[in-house]
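Deliverable D5.2: sample structural annotation.
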Amino acid sequence: MRIKLSESLINYLEVIYEEELKSSLGVQPNVIAQRLNVTRAAVTKATKKLASCGYLRKVYYGDVNLTDEGKELGKNLYEKLTSIHNYLLSMGVEESDAESQSRKLVTVLEDKIYFKIKDSLTS
């Protein structure tokens, strides 16, 4: 059963997924905090929520890793975010605006609309 996540938790999950692509050793909370411009306390709170949903686990010295379910969701979010970001760039949106707006859109855009965007980029 998939749990509905807030925009904030989706952003955490997506950032953790991106960081795990760089290293399989675990993601340090300070890296997450820097990427999302939040405090370590906010990271701790968010990672506890994601862990209680079954999307991640804490590992050695407080680092976190996504579970298989978290990796699957993270991959889907990452692909969706990348497609939306590229779509906005193709429309002439500035890089910084495309980054912030794609993070917002990924949380509210219905899949049927997302797939139309994705299809338009591949045609």
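Annotation notes: The chain has six helices and two strands. The mean pLDDT is 88.
The annotation will be released with the project's public dataset once the embargo ends.
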